[in-house]
């Protein structure tokens, strides 16, 4: 590991950030109240509700989502051997968003909390299946990325169509827009349990793929000669990305650019070997998302959408990566 | 030479039917907002007779207070400049969020475009009624509509909520100062918490903030099953710790009614009063 001290510092920031996220916020909740909640001591009901019911599941979910999106990004970039690949670029997030928006427009959210989440997952999987079918015909990376971009455009167009119809029924439009902006607000222990389960599954699959992903960086032909089953690696990799990105979008709406930016930061710290890259990506993603959530909660009484903050932070990094690539080509 | 060819090519078009160069002399009113649909109807028979179009949503019970009121013979329009131009109105009522390019096109066609704006409460409603009435030369009728509104508002006013704190929470947004809900709640004697906190308009607020405010009453919008909405909201994290939940004062009101900006605002005040009285019994 090149910079273990930096990663240790990131872990410390994560811990400190988690504590701050429990203490900071509206309502009169101090350090002693938070400690009392954990120690099972008597605390005012409001403090218990704020810490245990609202802040803790929300903050832990931010950590889980950050880690999952970071992992999904690292796997995608490894599979496609392209630093600009991420679930968003491949259309996975757009597919999930489109399916979720369609469900909201149809009023299916009234049937149960998990209907929209389930639909979002289906949307993500549908886009991935389309990509896999395309990969059979033409597995060139550039073609697949273009195919992903095209699918993302189609999904985006359908989502816009839903919104344009929603102008007449504006409460639907409002619901869809709010969901698309992404939010951790109001997420409970149930949301956290689903997110954590998906992260555990996705993390396990990612760990299983790590050596294949390393071999793929040498090119498909070399990887194949090293004994990598390319088809299986593709299937498992894409399914893992779909699971992670789909569940993330289902639970918190669209939160972009984390999957793009975080693997680059991690690569700078631990190198390109996936055995170290994947856990480092998860750690940095979790920390970044927790800090973004803390930021969105700390700007007065008005809540900011985390998806907007990540895009504002991620876009300059995206452009920086592009300019570096251009310089390398030159 | 090219111009000559162009003239020859366009020659056959000269025989095509086209809109009359002379503007119609009678007042022809086109309404593209539910708000103006309702107000124009309330202004009386003389005004109604001049209406050549009403909005497409006028018969939608979710939004319109006057469903099945306008005769079917009056066309329902969606507000595109093309559909409006075809009706050759002399005056058109459009909402402030309508397409500026479309508005400009109507104005260029010598149509008086009245843009209705301000949807922030009772005063804004009165101002809009005056604007509409003035535009169709029916100022006295407009004054009568406002007077009727004020009479019903006076009847709905109550002190049942005296001093109770209240919040309207819809899709993560609260209705703060300068919203219809602030006026509706204050008319029933409540203290609108977001207004007290210095917020203005509809603002995005976290559930955590809502719980920390400890409101005595929480109002949420519902679609069909309002009782189910109230029960579902109670299950949101932290909500049970609010006085509103403890005292059974989570009130779901049908969304279109809760967000109405016209005469039905009085109904919200009446509903709030009624529900608090029921909860107290």
Shape of chain A: globular
Helix content of chain A: over 70%
Structural class of the helices, strands and pairings of chain B? alpha/beta
Count the DSSP helices of chain A. Answer: 13
The oligomeric state of the chains shown is heterodimer
CA gyration radius of chain A, whole angstroms? 20 Å
Q: Strand-and-helix sequence of chain B, N→C?
A: HEHHEEHEHEHHEEHEHEHEHHEHH
Order of helices and strands of chain A: HHHHHHHHHHHHH
Q: Which strand-content bin applies to the residues of chain B?
A: 15-25%
Low-confidence stretches of chain A: none
N-C termini distance of chain A: 31 Å
Overview of the molecule:
The complex is a heterodimer of chains A (330) and B (281). Chain A has helices at residues 4-23, 31-39, 45-80, 92-105, 113-137, 141-166, 170-181, 189-216, 220-225, 230-252, 258-270, 274-298, 306-329. By secondary structure, chain A is mainly α. The longest helix of chain A has 36 residues, at 45-80. The radius of gyration of chain A is 20 Å and the shape is globular. Chain B is an alpha/beta fold. Helices cover 43% and strands 16% of the residues of chain B. Chain B contains 14 helices and eleven strands. Chain B has helices spanning 2-10, 34-42, 45-48, 81-86, 100-108, 122-135, 139-156, 180-187, 193-196, 207-213, 226-234, 243-246, 255-258, 265-280; strands at residues 29-31, 51-55, 76-77, 91-95, 112-116, 165-170, 173-175, 191-192, 202-204, 217-222, 250-254. In chain B, strands 6, 7, 8, 9, 10 and 11 form a six-stranded mixed β-sheet that branches. Chain B has a five-stranded parallel β-sheet with strand order 3-2-1-4-5, with helices on both faces. The longest helix of chain B has 18 residues, at 139-156. Classes of the chains: A mainly alpha (330), B alpha/beta (281). The A-B interface holds A 25-27, 45-46, 48-50, 53-55, 57-58, 107, 110, 168-169, 171, 174-175, 178, 183, 185-189, 297, 301-305 and B 56-57, 62, 170-173, 194, 197, 199, 203-209, 211-214, 221, 223-225, 228, 236-238, 240-241, 255-256, 259.
